[in-house]
Specification:
The protein is built from 21 helices and 24 strands. By secondary structure, the protein is α+β, with helices and mostly antiparallel strands. The protein folds into 3 domains: about 210 residues, FAD/NAD(P)-binding domain; about 200 residues, 3-Layer(aba) Sandwich (Glutaredoxin), CATH 3.40.30.10; about 50 residues, Winged helix-like DNA-binding domain superfamily/Winged helix DNA-binding domain (Arc Repressor Mutant, subunit A, Orthogonal Bundle). Helix 1 links the parallel strand 1 and strand 2. Helix 2 crosses helix 7 and helix 13 crosses helix 17. It starts with a strand and ends in a 5-residue tail after the last strand.
Length: about 650
Amino acid sequence: MKVVILGGGIAGLTAGILLKNKNWEVVINEKVDGVFSRGHAFLMNSQGLSVLNELSESSSMGLNKKRIDIFSLKRPNGNELIKIKLDPWFCIKRIDLMSYLKNHFPQENLKGGRQFSHFIYEKNKATAAVFANGEVEYGDLFIGADGSNSEVRKTIFGETNYTPIEVKEIVGVSKKRIDSIDEMTIFQKIQDEEKGLSFGFIPTFNDESVWFIQYDSKFVEKNQSDSKDLKSFCYSMLEKFPRDVKEVLDENDFKSTYIWNTRDFNLLPSFSSDNVVLIGDAAHLALPFTSAGTTNAILDAKILVDSLEEFNDYSKAFKNYYALRSESIREHIAQGREVKELFLYPKNHSERDFLLPLVFESNKIKSPICKPLKILYFTDPICSTCWLIQPILRKLKLEYDDYLDIDYRMGGLLPSWKDYNKGIIKEPSDAAKHWEDMSSLYKTPLDGDVWIEDPLDSSYPPSIAFKAAQLQNKDKAVLFLRRIKEMVFLEKKNITKRKFIENAALSCGLDSAVLLKDIQTNAIDLFKEDLELAQTYGITSFPTLLFSNVSDKKITLKGIQSYGKFEEIIKEFIPNVVKKKIDIDPLSLFKLYNIMTEDEFSFLTDIDMQTSHKLLLSLYKNGEIEKVENKNGFVWKYMPLL
């Protein structure tokens, strides 16, 4: 069966290569001689990159790409609204990707100078594509990959009802290098607080920066007939923006800078008509605020080709392709419009409403799950005993998560060292010795040197930070609490310091800019509520866990207890409880919990310490995990390959 692809851009080339790899006969037709490569660069997420990895045995390793670790949104005055870790995205220059794709497709099957005109039909079925130069290409299936102004789409569905152009975008490439922060590369965007105007810049693979200006199309534009006028317009628009913005423009070649009129259209009822099917921007178009266009084009190609392989009947294949793609496309269109609304009318929205200009997780509210057993857990970020029960909490989640609703509360272990007198600990050096003793007694890494080298003066700042994390996402807040514990107990980091709190927030998928603001406001009141609740229950030591259910039955558990004791209490409340079986495959566990101590791994897998060490060492030698040697034991980390 012969497939004729109309459009030699990213979508068309990707589909062509995937079909060729499955031994289909393919011809790609492009209106420009060679391959049209307008556009400087774009962002692609890991989904798109995974498809590119399938195109050849050498994977995408030969493709120049720059990993983007952090997105930051600021006001012109420097006020940061969003700072969040990306998971992950890559900046790729269009010319690099086009060259990469062309190298994987036979040049004799790539026909340039062919602008699509119309189809030849027999019994309502397309049999050939006719081009403006008079040439004709016969085929069995036709794929329209001819972009947002698709003539193929117009031919099979009629005129497209585009939304009005409300936002325009100027795009360029600057020689200005953007330095990373703590080895993390940042996609920076600066947005006006009163009107629809923003400037963004993203580093590329070769130390350049792709930059863009987005602006409300209602703004009066100066004459832009040549590069000098366009340059003048850009500088005048950004007059009140920071100096580094102007530095990016200073290093820009405005001869290659262009204006893009952004628009979209509603999801089509189908992506196909008989034996003609659309992919990429020809099939759907979202506003650039999602940065989803290139990834969606590549995913379209992948899913369409997989569907054609799965179904002998192309009509079933096309229906399956639409079914698999339409919902996410619908969501991306909606997300683009939502971010556009925030962009055009910033004064109408709270600063907490601002969203990433990237495809983001759905904001649909999930129905709360009612769990029969509530645990009120009073803890503290610097409580060594709370660190020792971490393996128990993780195992409880793996085996009994369907039954347990754990409510984390901060207890306020160390207000300050002034007049502090709890047991044997009266000053930082006492805490150092206590941690070392606990490490030795329980055979787990615990480094007390933090109390000698950089002692914390209070546990209140990290406790308040945890409450700020809870305001964003309760599950991520638990990850955040674990991470700051790792920092203080294993890495000797003073977690009262802003930089460590911020890094922990970013590593757990929290918005660190919002978190740092909440630490100064809302989180303080929430922390005070926790302290008042602890006082009400008479909590004087940590950890303390209060078990209760709807019958008002209550059981209190304090300090270090065996896992069997926890199970005994759970069964007392829920006699017919059924625990899940843990997948003890080491890599499965490490993908779930990226960092584990050796005793923790042993506890979760029920493998003795000696065997656990040999197994972990084998994984380390195979390059599957990393080993960090703490003075009191080993810590193992899973670092996924990109």
